[in-house]
Design goal:
Rossmann fold; 6-stranded mixed beta sheet; cell membrane; repeat
């Protein structure tokens, strides 16, 4: 059989979920030995197409060809045989199994194959060492359920990189990686392409990363092909954003309103005069004060920020941090107690720390309020309140009684923010809250958080995107690679260069 120009060709792909048409005749072609950036806004259909290519969804129409072979029901067979590997945006690991078992199990293709713990351990260490040798040595025997989101992301990527696949589908693979880990991942991808002719479909909202690794791009908009196989050096960032159907203008929040918030935070002034709800956290010789209306950024590898976040939100039984509110110790037995104490929490790990997958949208919207009020029974008024929230946040849903799986990742993230808007927490803690969301949704989330700060909420925001911290934060608490706090950067000192120097991580 003559070799076809493309390893994968998707033509006129159509897919609907109930009355919602997600893909409307979409085309995509991926060549051997290339990194192909797959771009589009949240809800445009990127993840749906990836799940069709990887056999997780059946298409309603259109054709798929892999290496010249028409794919019908054989899509799943190629995945099972290891020719196609995928890293989904929502990770697909088994939490009750070890890291080694999660990496090795997909290799057992026959029912008669025996599992070898020694072989699995060696395989896991080899695969993880491609990205993080230190993590590889100390994590192979750990349960996946005990890992952080950042660590689970490494396991998922390593499992796919070590699979020997000819086509690698990466849906937001760097959303929880440090800059150094991302650089190592890209180096591995380039080596595999040079050695094996691997083809990679790469989804990301980070334009800097896209230009570092990808050769060409295809843009999807409203389920249709907006741009088909254009070289990245032939299209600007502005043109990409416009083709995605998103505004490239400022969200209007970086002017007077943001400056007012910053000024109030710096001076400690508040509408009520005397300062109340002042939160302080201290460790060793470092003491940080967070006043109402201020936004404190956390920068650095996950270990340090996660420890502080756990102390603030009731996730840590013991902590090296001493936390006080208005001079009194502040410690919660669990996240529910923290919520009742005026502390809200939003994570970018929607699947494990946010979305209630089996409950409808209205229950997800009201989840925090029910925890605070110690209720589990829905009230009629909640449906009306939910409708007002959805309208105010411009969240397009079919019905409040639909499951959140019908929403795009970005809309799900806005849903998590919406939970706290009516509760008006005194402290809102955010853990990578814009993970895997597009430019427009990021700006909408920024605006919501700024508005909450303007109303007197103190905000703690951890992000591995330094540009995000520079734009949003009054001050930034930096941590080194071992999780130790290195100091606080204030106002004019908050820039990408200084953050990189303070954390030991590239911007």
């Amino acid at each position: 059989m003559a070799q076809t120009p493309f390893l994968l060709s998707a033509r006129s792909i159509v897919k609907s979920f109930g009355p919602t048409q997600v893909l409307r005749g979409f085309d995509l072609s991926i060549a051997r030995g290339e990194v192909h950036a797959f771009l589009g806004g949240n809800g445009a259909g990127k993840s749906t197409l990836i799940k069709i290519i990887s056999g997780q969804h059946e298409r309603d129409g259109g054709t798929l060809e892999f290496d010249g072979e028409a794919l019908g029901a054989t899509v799943a067979a190629h995945v099972e045989a290891g020719a196609i590997a995928v890293v989904n945006q929502e990770l697909a690991l088994l939490p009750h199994l070890s890291v080694a078992e999660n990496i090795a199990m997909p290799r057992l293709r026959r029912a008669t194959q025996k599992y070898s713990e020694r072989a699995a351990q060696a395989l896991a260490v080899d695969a993880l060492s491609l990205i993080d040798p230190h993590f590889a040595r100390e994590s192979a025997s750990r349960l996946v359920g005990d890992l952080t989101l950042h660590e689970r992301q490494l396991v998922e990527i390593a499992r796919s990189l070590g699979s020997g696949a000819r086509l690698l589908l990466l849906d937001e693979p760097t959303a929880n990686l440090t800059a150094a880990e991302t650089a190592r991942l890209f180096a591995v991808i380039r080596r595999l392409i040079a050695e094996t002719g691997l083809a990679v479909l790469f989804v990301s909202h980070r334009m800097r990363e896209i230009r570092q690794i990808a050769d060409v791009c295809t843009i999807i908009r409203d389920g249709k092909t907006a741009v088909d196989r254009v070289a990245l050096d032939a299209i600007t960032d502005r043109e990409i954003v416009e083709c995605m159907g998103q505004s490239v203008e400022s969200d209007g929040q970086t002017g007077a309103a943001a400056k007012t918030i910053r000024t109030r935070a710096a001076t400690g002034a508040s509408a009520g005069g005397a300062q109340r709800d002042e939160i302080t956290f201290a460790q060793a010789d470092l003491r940080v004060t967070l006043r109402p209306g201020s936004i404190l950024g956390l920068a650095g590898a996950p270990t340090g920020p996660s420890a502080l976040i756990n102390a603030l939100t009731g996730l840590a039984a013991e902590s090296a941090w001493d936390v006080e509110r208005d001079g009194a110790p502040l410690r919660f037995a669990n996240p529910g107690a923290a919520a009742r104490g005026g502390v809200g929490f939003i994570s970018g790990d929607r699947a494990n720390k946010g979305i209630l997958e089996t409950l409808p949208i209205v229950d997800n919207l009201m989840a925090a309020q029910r925890v605070v009020e110690r209720r589990s029974v829905a009230r009629r008024a909640e449906v009306e309140q939910g409708a007002r929230l959805l309208e105010a946040l411009n969240m397009r849903v079919g019905s409040q009684w639909d499951l959140p799986s019908t929403l795009s990742g970005g809309t799900q993230q806005k849903l998590l923010v919406a939970r706290w808007l009516t509760l008006k927490p005194k402290l809102l803690v955010l853990e990578e809250p814009t993970r895997g969301v597009d430019i427009r949704t990021k700006r909408e989330i920024y605006a919501l958080i700024r508005e909450m700060a303007a109303q007197g909420c103190a905000v703690v925001w951890w992000s591995t995107e330094y540009v995000e911290l520079v734009e949003l934060c009054d001050t930034v608490l930096a941590f080194d690679l071992d999780g130790r706090p290195t100091g606080v950067l204030t106002h004019a000192d908050v820039n990408e260069t200084n953050l990189a120097n303070a954390t030991g991580m590239a911007a």
